[in-house]
Every structure is written in structure tokens, then in C-alpha cells.
Amino acid sequence: MAWFKRTDKGIQTPTEEKKDTPKGLWYKTPSGKIIDTDELKKNLYVSPEDGYHVRIGSKEYFELFFDDNKFEELNPKLTAKDPLKFEDTKKYPDRLKEVQKKTGLKDAVRTAVGKSMGKDLVVASMDFSFIGGSMGSVVGEKIARAIDYSIENNIPFLMISKSGGARMMEASLSLMQLAKTSVKLAQLAKAKIPYVSLCTDPTTGGTTASFAMLGDINIAEPNALIAFAGPRVVKDTTGKDLPEGFQRSEFLLEHGFLDAIYERKDLKKQVNLYLDLIQNQPVRA
Predict the structure, then answer these.
(1) Residue pair 223/248 in contact by the 8 Å Cβ criterion
(2) DSSP-assigned letters across all residues of 68-83
(3) What percentage of the chain carries pLDDT values higher than 90?
(4) Largest pairwise CA distance in the chain
(5) 200 touches 160 (CB < 8 A)
(6) What is the SS3 assignment for 110?
(7) Angle, nearest 10°, between helix axes 171-190 and 137-153?
(8) Distance CA 205, CA 30 (A)
């Protein structure tokens, strides 16, 4: 029997015979463009019609930067404690367990070392899916240890930021990570080892106030929100309308806060080009 039948009132489909479209087959960008999710993945999660860069995590960035997706993860088992006995709608340890189970991540940053265009590179990549990419003690410690690894092995360092800022559940301990990571980057600079900072959407709060804007080269993906306080907070505080595109990467580039903006497909080549130039090495094809 056919799945539809004609009547005098038009084509009707009995409820029991209706077919639901499987979830996750299509992605709709903010501008309304629709793309097949398989095509989106093949295009590095960038919409080909409007260039919208969908948020991705450390898994996808490691696949992008490391040759053949081969790398050694650094300090993968570090997890947060609860020295402040923090509790809001949930106890902090319960929230951590829940998000760890949901995301498969230990915390909001992963660090790894591997080959990128044939040469060693240390990469730290944040994950917004883990409590909004918030920066707590584990994030600061893993970045610090990754920088130490870069110094000990004379390997360039790439930081990929994607964060809502400091983690409120750790209060002042979270804020201490701003100074901690900044000091480590000063040690990296003293050792004359290159540091490239890649800001992705969003890069806000304490990350922007520390390691995200301290690169030898500061670059970003298109239309990424990069700020300390978000535009709504700024508008509510000043009581003034903000310029069009305020705090987006193009706005920051125009005002001298960024060195360049690159589409995702060009990131690996451009980062390695910078590293070759900084280290006065032959440019890799």
C-alpha cells in the first residue's frame, strides 16, 4: 500500500504512516543558510554559502593542525578539585562529573604535541562545550605545563582560545590563572620560542585578559567574538549604541588588536608560515 493516498481534499498521510526526518542531517546558519551536515564536516564546519564558521572543539582542531591526526596528548588525566566547596544549583563536583560524562572531556582545554607540516608543534585547544570553556585551575595548569614542554623541547606553541572567561566555581583560584599563564608565556618569550595565539568564537573574559592576546602573532577566525566584557554588558554600562560589528574579529583587526584573520581551511598553512618566518627557516610548501 502506498504511503499516501489522494482524497477530494488533496493528498493526506495517515499519522501512523508519517516519516520523521532524522535529526542532525542539516545545519542552519544564523543567516538562514541550510547545509547538509556531512558536507559541513567535509568543509571543516564552515558553511560554503555564507562562510559561517561553526564552533568546533579540540578534536576537530587537532585533526586540522596535526599531520594525519597523529599526536601525543599531554597531561590528559588532570581534573579539577573543589577547594571552595562551591554550590549553586548543583555542587561543583556533581557538575564536573555530569559535564565530563556528557562531553567525554576532563576539562575545558586539551594539550598535545605532534607534527604539523612535518615539524613539531605544541597545541593547546579549548572546548566551549565544557562549562562554556571556562578557565579554572586545570586549564591554567595544563597550559602552563604545555608551555614548559615547549621550552624544554624547543618547540613552538599554538594556543587556540574559545572561552566564556574565568570559572566562577573556582573564584580567585580561577583569576590566578591569568597571571600564571602570562608568566609562563614570558618565560617562553625569553627562551625565544614562537607563540601563535588563535582566537575563535567566542574569546572573552579572563582568556582575552591573559594568554589569548599575548601571542607573537595574534590571529582569528572570521566573525569571532573577541572581548573582555561582552557587547551587551558594555552597552548597558555606557548607555550608548555600539558600532556595527563591535568586538568581532574584523573590528579588532581594523583597530590594531589582531594581526590577521584567516578562514579555517587556511589556518594550518598560515600558522606554519609564521613559524617558519619567525624562526628564519625555509618556508614549507
Answers:
(1) yes
(2) GG-EEEESTT-----T
(3) 79
(4) 82
(5) yes
(6) strand
(7) 10
(8) 24
Distance CA 123, CA 116 (A): 10
Domains identified in the chain and CATH numbers: 22-54 (no CATH), 56-279 (3.90.226.10)
Tell me: pLDDT of 260 over 90: yes
CB 171 within 8 A of CB 83: no
Read off the pTM: 0.89
- Residue listed under C-alpha cell 617558519: 276
Overall size of the chain counted in residues? 285
Residues 6+ apart with CB under 8 A from 284: 117, 118, 119, 272, 273, 276
DSSP string, 165-199: -B-GGGHHHHHHHHHHHHHHHHHHHHTT--EEEEE
Residue 14 vs residues 18, 20, 21, 31: alpha-carbon distances, Å: 7, 13, 16, 35
* pLDDT confidence of residue 21: 44
**H/E run at residue 142:** helix 137-153
